[in-house]
Amino acid sequence: MEVKSEGIQLRCDKLQSPVIPRTRLRIWFIRVCSSIVIWTCLVQLVTVSELWQSHFISGITSSISRITQVQLPLRSDDGVAVVLPPLAPARNYTSNGFLRVSCNGGLNQMRAAICDMVTVARLLNLTLVVPELDKTSFWADPSNFEDIFNVKHFIDSLRDEVRIVKRVPKKFSRKEGYSTLAMPPVSWSNEKYYLEQILPLFGKHKVLHFNRTDTRLTNNGLPLDLQKLRCRVNYQALKFTSEIENLGQKLIQILQGNGPFVALHLRYEMDMLAFSGCTQGCTDNEAEELKQMRYAFPWWREKEIVSKERRSQGLCPLTPEEAALVLRALGFGRETQIYIAAGEIYNGERRLAELRAAFPRIVKKETLLTRDDLQQFQNHSSQMAALDFMVSAASNTFIPTFDGNMAKLVEGHRRYSGFKKTILLDRRKLVELLDMHQNRTLAWNEFADAVRQFHESRIVRPTRRRVILDKPKEEDYFYANPHECLCEETNCDDLPGPRNSSDV
């Protein structure tokens, strides 16, 4: 019986052995084919969505987004669930083409340019490509947009105004027969220029590349909805990355924990001194060093500069020594906590000595944070500037010693946040007073009284921007005083003229 059973078992094994490999091969083949089909469908689906912005796909993704926001609420620090509001419906429009922009300058110059370019894209019904940031300026910062700003928030928060994509679809590449037109738009241009001169270019070129973006949109004369869109981008859509936001908030909390503080935007950095030609308080060797730097950068067009003349015209940033005298004259005491919102001060602690002697509680981000905190931001000047921007916007008092882009944009943010105290220094008058005091022709009490008197009307208050027809460079800057975004509804008639804050 055992022999027979073994024989039967052997026959069964022989009958089954060829069947197993065939079955496994067939299953394996089916799985491979199915995977290929599925992935092909997915690739096609993504391609169709990217190229034609399928309303069907957009509807599905919007629904999924709303569902996930409801199902996965965030939690605040105290553990309470926080449900984010659903995204606004995406604006439905036929795009006239893609707008690429390369921003130039420092962080705040680029920030204003981004606001302008979103507005231009909205006006012309374009699809905006996430802006490219300047990597060739003096600071040579390699940061991309996503290294400084929250890209997802930027795209999502503006979806009801303009379509924003991370890159131009491959369909519109040179290989497919499309050419990109690179050009700088004309500075201080209004909507007529963009509608009549720029929009027709998209008939031939589906992609335009604005390779310069600074001050390419006028301050005044734009429709109210476009002005308000500029504000919406600036104050809501341009949110820093979580890393910058978290570290900035840590800085603010440290400062606030030590009491009220003044943010002093001490623009006494090497690049500013070289660019402006201001050498007050410098040795002959230092003045020559700054001059050589100015000649080393071809785009700094003005080369031969007389420092004394520039200073007498109020066109130089205050020196640290001058800032110390002015702060004392304005009534700030030795106990005042002062945050230096700036990069590396030229010749560092040597030039800060008098300021530190007058105000021992001077701090910087480098002294408040650990080396580990700042490590990821080192050699990224725009990211470091973002930290100073956050602190300056949150300070109890903000005092810029020069009216550059950061000073102007911080002023605008502080207006937008309820007119926090900002003192705009009258440098031309201050130079006269400082020289008289240092020449001992003006006693300290007289000097201090004069400084306070001249600055009573230079504390920022609600005002209209100054308009100078055909001289946009001399007008008040939109981002320093976006009064259309600060008025009740649409009525700005009750705002006083620009006498209080616009004569810098």
Overview of the molecule:
47% of the residues lie in helices and 8% in strands. The protein is of the alpha/beta class and 504 residues long. It folds into two domains: 98-237; 242-485, no CATH class. α4 crosses α8 (224-237). The longest helix is centred in the first third of the chain and has 34 residues, at 19-52. The chain starts with a helix and ends in a 49-residue tail after the last helix. Mean pLDDT is 86; it is low at 1-20, 46-78 and 500-504.
Summary tags:
2 domains, alpha/beta, disordered C terminus, 5-stranded parallel beta sheet, 504 residues, 47% helix
In short:
InterPro entries: FucosylTrfase_pln, GDP-Fuc_O-FucTrfase. With 504 residues, the chain is α/β, with parallel strands linked by helices.
Number of strands: 12
Would you tell me the structural class of the helices and strands? alpha/beta
Largest β sheet strand count, sense and barrel closure = 5 strands, parallel
| Structural domains: how many | 2
Oligomer: single chain
How much beta, percentage-wise?
Answer: 5-15%
Radius of gyration, rounded?
A: 30 Å
Unreliable stretches: 1-20, 46-78, 500-504
GO biological process, one term: fucose metabolic process
InterPro entries: FucosylTrfase_pln (IPR024709), GDP-Fuc_O-FucTrfase (IPR019378)
Pfam family, one: O-FucT
GO cellular component, one term: chloroplast
List the helices and strands and how they pair.
Blueprint: H1 2-16, H2 19-52, H3 55-71, E1 74-75, E2 81-82, E3 98-101, H4 107-124, E4 127-129, H5 145-148, H6 151-157, E5 163-165, E6 180-183, H7 191-198, E7 207-210, H8 224-237, H9 242-257, E8 261-265, H10 270-276, H11 284-296, H12 307-312, H13 320-329, E9 337-340, H14 348-358, E10 362-363, H15 365-368, H16 371-374, H17 381-394, E11 397-400, H18 405-416, E12 421-422, H19 427-438, H20 444-455
Parallel strand pairs: 3-4, 3-7, 4-5, 6-7, 8-9, 8-11, 9-10, 11-12
Antiparallel strand pairs: 1-2
Helix pairs in contact: 4-8, 9-17, 10-11, 13-14, 17-18, 19-20
Keywords: Carbohydrate metabolism, Fucose metabolism, Glycoprotein, Glycosyltransferase, Membrane, Signal-anchor, Transferase, Transmembrane, Transmembrane helix
GO molecular function: glycosyltransferase activity
Family: Belongs to the glycosyltransferase GT106 family.
